[in-house]
Amino acid sequence: MRTPRLRAQPRGPSVTVASMAVFRSGLLVLTTPLASLAPRLAPILTSAARLVNHTLYVHLQPGMSLEDPAQPPSSPVQATFEVLDFITHLYAGADVHRHLDVRILLTNIRTKSTFLPPLPTSVQNLAHPPEVVLTDFQTLDGSQYNPVKEQLVRYATSCYSCCPRLASVLLYPDYGIGEVPMESLDVPLPSTIRPASPVARSPKQPVRGYYRGAVGGTFDRLHNAHKVLLSIACILAQEQLVVGVADKDLLKSKLLPELLQPYTERVEHLSEFLVDIKPSLTFDVIPLLDPYGPAGSDPSLEFLVVSEETYRGGMAVNRFRLENDLEELALYQIQLLKDVKHTENEEDKVSSSSFRQRMLGNLLRPPYERPELPTCLYVIGLTGISGSGKSSIAQRLKGLGAFVIDSDHLGHRAYAPGGPAYQPVVEAFGTDILHKDGIINRKVLGSRVFGNKKQLKILTDIMWPIIAKLAREEMDRALPCPMWDCLLTLGLCCRVCVIDAAVLLEAGWQNLVHEVWTVVIPETEAVRRIVERDGLSEAAAQSRLQSQMSGQQLVEQSHVVLSTLWEPHITQRQVEKAWALLQKRIPKSHQALD
Q: Which H helix or E strand runs over 408?
């Protein structure tokens, strides 16, 4: 017999997706059998994303009808490998809707086990109580049939804590011109979970449950690939899940570690997600300080969930356990999620590294209010560790129209005979710092203050205020043309001024700027560049870096972060992005002149 097919349903006349309000949080109840649901998932998520703009909870209840007079109970869903694959498929599909925090609720998904607790009879609290409940369940006439919606609301509120005035919507997604199978075609989803032998693996095979297990990761900016890893671990665990969160030495090799969320922030987001999706578990979230973590030493653990990337690490954990007379852990390997939107210098998988790269050039915190600065200037303070490529960024900004003030050049002017710092420096450090022609020998002066905090403070107390004064004078010269005065009076333009200064924050010059922009680079790359550029030894280059604020310290006080780690055209693209965003946020009185 021919499989029945469902054509795209017309929407009811009274309610359309376009006319609905946007809700901050929602609950999506999926009732279609999984094999039939998979090909429809993309348009369903698209419809849901038009209604919900922050948190979307998903509840799986395949086969449930909302047209029966009796309220349907929340019944357990057998955890099979098909269910695990569907969860991966759903999170992968949700990744195109990056504004949505999707969370698949797991309380009713049950593994094959003799020690399972009964389904909870009380309502499950959620961190973001849904304001609307949505479903893929459809009525024959394609309308927003009130009794069905009322049944949907009753079902949702019997399972979860929802907002008092819970709205409800029957989704009728646009499935396109073609037809969508109404019944399963028995085409399994791609296999995304690979258990280690001897665990069986077929779509309908029930998944075994364990008392205790573990999973680990950095969990920076919790994304959908993390959620797959955590969700599989939560389904397998019946009592306790140990979650290791990478910290300290394990973060050093990460790309753009300066932009990693602090450990406490990562744990906070992770803990909220875990308690939301399966509150019956006990979660032990701990810092992961070595590659093995508790998985290598805890005899009570039974399984470990890893990704394709960390599978070898999981094998190493098992070898370590065997060496210490502990039983091996059952390994479950999760397939990486592909990132269809990655750019040329990003990984092709969904990863926190790519998310951090996309932060480059973005505004990370509100600009400083600087009413004491001329309204005709919008001032950027550009800083970075030695070797970061800060000066090259300054030149790129100059090419886009910025007026650049080089603090090193100001320092040279200040040191020159007759300059404002010449006599105070000679009086403080003696005439033996002078060349025969009377010019200050900066190498001799540098050796005098390097490693001597007291002497260095004497020098900086002289130099920093003088350079700041010279920078203010340069800012006054940024708009010398009388035509600018006329335009400024009309509020039609403003000049972006960039102060290029390695010691911007140490010197306290942030009071001269609206925004601090920092250029970051791995320390190993900075050392390589310093050695190549200045002819120093690696030890001398490292000493120079250690005498400066670290990239991490600079970023903590920065508004925009850039990096010169990649090819020059990638750097140029970053700078152009940062410049374009800057033009959009500069107040009207600060808008740049075309």
A: helix 407-415
